[in-house]
Amino acid sequence: MTNRRCSSCLCYSVLLAAIVPLISSAEQTESESNIRFLIYVTNEASGDVSVIDGLDRKVINTILLGKRPRGIAADPLNQRIFVAMSGSPLAGPGVDEKSLPPPDKSADGIGIVDTRTGRVAEVLRGVSDPEQVALSPDGRRLYVASEDAGKAVVIDVASGKLLAQIPVGGEPEGVAVNPRRAVAYFTSEVGNSVAVVDTVKFQLLRTVPVGQRPRDVEFSRDGTRAYVTGEVDASLSVMDGQTDTVLKTLRVPGEGARPKGIALSQDGRRIYISTGRGGQIVAFDTTTWSVLGSVQVGARPWGLALSPDGRYLYSANGPSDDVSVIATEPLRVEATIKVGKRPWGIAVLQLPP
User: Fold this and answer.
1) How far is CA 137 from CA 257, 267, 283, 287, 329, in A?
2) For a Cys staple, 261 with which of 81, 139, 215, 274, CB 3.0–4.6 Å?
């Protein structure tokens, strides 16, 4: 697949040299660590990915992908990103599917972008209506939520071969792999549940009830906790990552809150939740479960990601076609970056020194 929008661009290595200009002393104070990183944003309506330089906060590349790019994940070496693309028509919850145009199944796939060249390297086919993706800790297997099929799909990354398709409940969306235990969690929007899948035997172990219309799921770095957002009842379910049980259910505050995205600090002591139509990001202390604060961002914040040093949070704001740059201490919006149409997901990749 050819990246038509980047055909006249300089090669990616030249771009990387260009995105790290001399930084003024004021800018050095703002970004003391000077960690070089890129922010990848999937734009559902324009069918592309915006690449933002994390230090100067400017879009440096736009990569054309295909229809409805949504979920995004990076491999452990930060050399590739995997993006779920779908030919199913865009529709909100409760829409009569009979009123929609037929899906374009030829557009379904997982786009693989080589981050060293900034180009699409390959598109994996054979997954129906993929919504979100996650990689195994070693990067060898890809786990995909196939929304219209109601299945967890496991793909061998090297060969592109489908290894398994496991029923996990209606409209699976969120997917995360436990970094310390051979299981993956898939949220079922219809079933109001989390499906626990054995990643060795490729079988469903159990189904755990959570909040209403669960969207995202995220594990702590040690795999002992998992967090699930419930959109309809504004819930955050805290799960034990070893026993697969719900330990606590919290309400995400804010008028009109519809929790979606999750970002977890590296030490696991702080969790950030995007509230969709609520227009805010809410921060919780995971030790006391007190609300640390909230901040208003763009329209319908969705995907979230943190900078490598944890000092900044990025939210994909769909209807406003932008990304908010949020300082985490204290919570405040420092910048807004225009991207493509209907930004959906975000991944941050740290560059080598």
Assistant:
1) 32, 18, 26, 26, 30
2) 274
